[in-house]
Specification:
Helix 3 runs parallel beside helix 6 (135-147). The chain is α/β, with parallel strands linked by helices. It has helices at residues 40-47, 69-74, 92-99, 111-118, 120-124, 135-147, 165-180, 192-198, 216-220, 223-228, and strands at 2-11, 14-24, 29-33, 54-59, 62-63, 77-80, 153-157, 184-189, 201-206, 209-215. It has a 6-stranded mixed β-sheet with strand order 6-7-8-3-9-10, with helices on both faces. Strands 2-1-4-5 form a 4-stranded antiparallel β-sheet, with helices on one face. A hairpin with a 2-residue loop joins strand 9 (201-206) and strand 10. It has 10 helices and 10 strands. The chain has a single domain, classed as Rossmann fold, CATH 3.40.50. The chain binds adenosine-5'-triphosphate (ATP). Adenosine-5'-triphosphate binds next to strand 2 and helix 1.
Length: 232
């Protein structure tokens, strides 16, 4: 579904991604793990069309690098950004509806049913302002908002960040259910154990380069990976 080859991205001379190649097949959960500053956010922003890049990024055969960010979203790539980036003063309902802003036609708000079945708490808090939600609930809302765009590929940037440990499990369980519903997931995480537990395959990113890839279970069990690349 997603094919990336020789991807480079830089910020004023600082090379954030160097020759990154990565594939995601339909129905998979693929995790990209790496320490702080490895380039994980830059990778997702590159796919979403939010940073300038060199190389190839194909989504179902479409060259995403030729499209602007809003067209990439319309093509079926959803992003749950790092730090959630909600509209804090707007209600839960309005945050969700804004997710469907660029969707046209009668089916526009149809994903609401899916969002409420995944996260019943959101349905109970529809009129509440986003800023009054707990960290975990805000993450649910950020995922819900991305689902409102009707994505086939959902990309999540550190969904466990700033969340109580008890709710982290709920978020990861929800990501699994999203996959079971037929979506494909590209997950970027610093929390190695949890991410590798739900992923099918994983890539290890270190200072902008992929240094290892394989089945998530194999990477999870590799002591050298944990020590050398992830600083654990
Ligand atoms: P984190 O887990 O801290 O978010 P990350 O793996 O997501 O890290 P990136 O945020 O992609 O890493 O950053 C990769 C590199 O690019 C880092 O060295 C970072 O300092 C640098 N960088 C990121 N964004 C910018 C920017 N807007 N301007 C300049 N440098 C940046």
């Amino acid at each position: 579904m997603l094919h990336i080859e020789g991807l480079n991205a830089s910020y004023r001379g600082l090379k954030a991604l160097q020759g990154v190649s990565l594939d995601v097949a339909k129905g998979e959960i693929v995790a990209v793990v790496g320490a702080n500053g490895a380039g994980k956010t830059t990778l997702l922003k590159s796919i979403a069309g939010l940073v300038a890049t060199e190389g190839r990024i194909e989504f179902d055969g479409t060259d995403l690098r030729a499209l602007k960010a809003h067209m990439i979203s319309r093509a079926g790539v959803g992003l749950v950004p790092e730090g959630r980036r909600l509209f804090p003063r707007l209600s839960v309902e309005d945050n969700l509806r804004l997710g469907a802003y660029a969707v046209e036609g009668p089916e526009r708000f149809k994903p609401l049913e899916l969002v409420f079945s995944l996260f019943p708490r959101l349905a109970e808090r529809l009129k509440q302002r986003a800023e009054t939600l707990s960290g975990g609930e805000q993450q649910m809302l950020a995922i819900g908002r991305a689902l409102m765009t009707g994505p086939r590929l959902l990309m999540l940037d550190e969904p466990s960040q700033g969340i109580m440990p008890k709710l982290v499990d709920d978020i990861f369980a929800a990501i699994q259910r999203i996959r079971d519903l037929g979506l494909t997931v590209l997950l970027v995480e610093q929390r190695l154990a949890e991410a590798l537990e739900i992923a099918d395959r994983a890539y290890v990113l270190q200072t902008g380069r992929i240094v290892m890839s394989g089945k998530a279970a194999d990477i999870a069990g590799d002591a050298d990976v944990r020590r050398a690349y992830l600083g654990l």
